[in-house]
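We were asked to recover a plausible sequence for a given structure. The inputs and outputs are reproduced exactly as logged, with field labels preserved.

PROBLEM: sequence recovery
POSITIONS: 259
GIVEN STRUCTURE:
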């Protein structure tokens, strides 16, 4: 029985054996590891040989993982990404897992057929304007600021802390409101969307959209319209097409191999 170990990138629907070339993780000085398929009936996992030991979560390895999946996407309309760092101890383990979870994988492949993920991030260009709007829109914040001006040294710190908490809460609500405006403009073009965490005060949206490949141009046009509409207010970062990591990122736990 094969005990060499295999690093797993994604799952595709095919009966044919495929070799995608030396593009995999951990190839060493001679380039990437050879990426090929291991199949069971009409399902296949895209893999490269790798010792059954934990893979270092380095930027280089993560990029290589994504690049392999993107390469597979060039030939297959439906691709299920597998979580970074997943390693099988043998070929038999892979085929047994494909057998046990075949219904799940086939349903997901059907749902993700001819679809890609597009990413949208939006950051405010001028935070002074945003904080000014928050103060103008929030009566309680205005009163708290007035209290600071009228307070003595003893109460000044307490009043400033109160204003800070009020502004923080108002900023969250403002992010949610403007985030919804952008999502509303794009959701009619997308099959699904997910909101991811934002970073810092400036970023108010970090979203992933699942889009049919036939609608990519319409999505591009909608992003152009948003960029023009909010040119003075928002800087957009638009990425894709990408593998559907946020909508079908397969997780295989150690106990799954043992069944």
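RECOVERED SEQUENCE:
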């Amino acid at each position: 029985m094969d005990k060499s170990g295999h690093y797993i990138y994604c799952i595709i629907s095919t009966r044919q054996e495929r070799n995608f070339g030396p593009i995999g993780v951990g190839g060493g000085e001679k380039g990437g590891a050879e990426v090929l398929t291991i199949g069971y009936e009409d399902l296949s996992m895209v893999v490269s040989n790798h010792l059954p030991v934990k893979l270092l979560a380095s930027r280089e390895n993560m990029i290589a993982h994504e690049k392999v999946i993107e390469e597979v996407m060039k030939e297959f309309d439906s691709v299920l990404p597998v979580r970074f760092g997943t390693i099988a101890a043998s070929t038999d383990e892979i085929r047994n897992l494909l057998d046990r979870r075949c219904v799940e994988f086939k349903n997901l492949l059907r749902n993700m057929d001819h679809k890609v993920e597009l990413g949208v991030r939006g950051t405010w260009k001028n935070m002074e304007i945003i904080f000014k709007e928050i103060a103008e829109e929030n009566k309680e914040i205005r009163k708290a600021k007035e209290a600071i001006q009228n307070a003595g040294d003893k109460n000044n710190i307490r009043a400033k802390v109160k204003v800070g908490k009020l502004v923080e809460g108002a900023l969250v609500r403002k992010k949610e409101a403007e985030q919804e405006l952008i999502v509303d403009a794009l959701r009619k073009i997308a099959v699904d969307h997910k909101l991811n965490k934002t970073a810092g005060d400036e970023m108010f949206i970090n979203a992933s959209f699942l889009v049919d490949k036939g609608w990519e141009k319409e999505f591009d046009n909608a992003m152009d319209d948003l960029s023009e509409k909010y040119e003075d207010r928002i800087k957009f970062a638009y990425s894709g097409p990408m593998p559907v990591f946020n909508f079908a990122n397969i997780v295989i736990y150690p106990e799954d191999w043992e069944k």
